[in-house]
Amino acid sequence: SYKIMARIDNRRFYTSALKLYGETPKGLNWFSKQSQEIRFAKILEFLPKDFQDKLIVDAGCGFGDFYHYAHLDSQHYIGLDSLEIMCHKTHKATGAKSFVVDICQDELPKGDFFICSGAMNILHKFETHLFIQNCFRSAKYGFIFNILYGEKESSTYNYFTKKEIYQIAKDLQVTSIKINDQYLQNDITVGFYKNFSH
After folding, report:
1. What is the pLDDT of residues 49-63, one digit of tens each?
2. What is the chain's mean pLDDT, rounded?
3. What is the mean pLDDT of residues 127-143?
4. What is the pLDDT at residue 15?
């Protein structure tokens, strides 16, 4: 039977970390800068070689760290976040457009690729499905994301199995899927592609 577990408040989860750790990976509830960058590196591997010429939309942009890691320019990057403070900091740090949106349900700006690193980890399963669906549909070529992986049950974090990921892909009629779960324990990077050979 499917049980809905109480999730923690998204705003409190991030604003309390920000107060404690400031504009650092820990301020976004990452374990460390290294674990954040390992995930970024996997996302880059799933993007085409000419990704810097594509419009990248960062869903759950935090402080715009991916922008700097990937050496993007402000014309080829849009940040999205549910928290105004994050969008403000991203815009300030990158000079790029950033929008406050509920990624699960609002209309999103169009982009070539959507990426997401860590932002779905505290959502409910149903919200995660909506988040992925909205990003994938708003992307011209695909959505690349990481998510917590495994059979674990947690009242805070959201774990997915490969079976569940493939089911979402089937529901969305994803034409091509790429997966890597060989880099960090309980983490998986997924590429849902369309109109694109990679």
Report:
1. 999 999 999 999 988
2. 86
3. 96
4. 60
What secondary structure does DSSP assign to 45-111, as a single string? HHS-TTGGGS-EEEET-TTTHHHHHTT--GGGEEEEESSHHHHHHHHHHH-SEEEE--TTTS----E
Place of tokens 């320019």: 73
pLDDT band at 3 (very low <50, low <70, confident <90, very high): very low
For 92, phi then psi, to 5°, come to -65, -40
- Compute the distance between CA of residue 59 and CA of residue 51 in angstroms, rounded to an integer: 16
158-167: long-range contacts (C-beta < 8 A, 24 or more apart)? 158/7, 158/120, 158/121, 158/122, 158/123, 158/124, 158/125, 158/128, 159/186, 160/125, 160/128, 160/188, 162/188, 164/125, 165/190
CA atoms within 13 A on the CB side of 72: 29
Select the more confidently predicted residue: 182 or 22. Answer: 182
- How many secondary structure helices (H) and strands (E) does the chain include? 6, 8
CB-based contact 131:103 (threshold 8 Å): yes
C-alpha 81/C-alpha 60 separation (Å) is 5
Averaged pLDDT, 131-142: 97
